[in-house]
Amino acid sequence: MTHTPVAAALPVLDMAMLDRDEASAAAFRAELRTATHEVGFFYLVGHGIPDEVTARAFATAEEFFALPTEDKQAVEMRRSPHFRGYTRTGGELTRGRVDWREQIDIGAERDRVDDPDAPAYMRLEGPNPWPAAQPGLRGVFTDWERRCSVVARRLMRSWALALGSPADVFDDTFGDRPSTLIKLVRYPGREERGQGVGAHNDPGVLTLLMIEPGKGGLQVEHDGEWIDAPAVPGAFVVNIGELLEFATDGYLKATMHRVVSPPAGETRLSIPFFFNPALDSTVPRIDLPPELAAQARGVTQDPDNVISGTFGDNLLKARLRAHPDVAALHHADLVARGS
Ligand SMILES: O=C(O)CCC(=O)C(=O)O
Ligand SMILES: [Fe+2]
């Protein structure tokens, strides 16, 4: 793969087409299927989230990162067995290499599970550490989660129909306990523009990413090149994760992407929302119509990253790897047995 970005734009899809007549809705679904078969990434406009809501989310994120270090440390992920909270710059790894970004992880707000017989992955459920120094943050991102979940569920139904399945084929996978995750991320500028976040596929189903207006840095792999995917005002960058590739035997494509650090003196904020299955569910394998099955490429085989079975097992493995300090502090029993 070369490392020179090429100027080729990702497709732009307009979700408002779903609200017009059936012909427009069908055209949207066909574009969705093509974009995620061929590229795996697209911009989504017409999603119904007003610009002022997005602006408030970024303003809130900016305020969080501007808090004194002690206030951010008060909600450090190292204190959370559920992998929630603040990670300082340099505290996260992708494929064993340090990512140059600071972030707070906000998951679905639930009670912790105290049943000793529950599967290990139930340790991922629990409350979020909300920053006492910024009481408004909780409401802003509880609202963001609700709005993004509506968009995500509509997209899942559109894919289901576009793949020749009943609209509700994925509904049980998410049920009323999807494993949603919001990250607020800040990439500091660097003299030598290195790894903001290293090249990776998203491990889940679907990601809705909002990038701070005016900022570049995201690059998407396509046909052996890196394509730049700068912020488009008001648009989500949408991509699918490895589980949707798995569900479609590789007909849909989980695509590698990375973020290059901004130049020295600049910063970049982003807010990815990950829409993932309930922890105890398995993702169905879709029965594709023959003309689509003929174009299915099979699932990318990576012996270090085997996708199968229960979602919670996959997620727990990914979290233990990305945050070895949290794993050692709270889950030494799992690390010892190599989960
Ligand atoms: O910050 C971004 O633009 C992308 C982040 C990302 O790919 C991730 O957190 O999975
Ligand atoms: Fe990602």
From TrEMBL:
<comment type="similarity">
    <text>Belongs to the iron/ascorbate-dependent oxidoreductase family.</text>
</comment>
<protein>
    <submittedName>
        <fullName>2-oxoglutarate and iron-dependent oxygenase domain-containing protein</fullName>
    </submittedName>
</protein>
<feature type="domain" description="Fe2OG dioxygenase">
    <location>
        <begin position="177"/>
        <end position="277"/>
    </location>
</feature>
<dbReference type="InterPro" id="IPR005123">
    <property type="entry name" value="Oxoglu/Fe-dep_dioxygenase_dom"/>
</dbReference>
<dbReference type="Pfam" id="PF14226">
    <property type="entry name" value="DIOX_N"/>
</dbReference>
<keyword id="KW-0045">Antibiotic biosynthesis</keyword>
<dbReference type="InterPro" id="IPR027443">
    <property type="entry name" value="IPNS-like_sf"/>
</dbReference>
<keyword id="KW-0408">Iron</keyword>
<keyword id="KW-0560">Oxidoreductase</keyword>
<comment type="pathway">
    <text>Antibiotic biosynthesis.</text>
</comment>
<dbReference type="InterPro" id="IPR050231">
    <property type="entry name" value="Iron_ascorbate_oxido_reductase"/>
</dbReference>
<dbReference type="InterPro" id="IPR044861">
    <property type="entry name" value="IPNS-like_FE2OG_OXY"/>
</dbReference>
<keyword id="KW-0479">Metal-binding</keyword>
<dbReference type="InterPro" id="IPR026992">
    <property type="entry name" value="DIOX_N"/>
</dbReference>
<dbReference type="Pfam" id="PF03171">
    <property type="entry name" value="2OG-FeII_Oxy"/>
</dbReference>
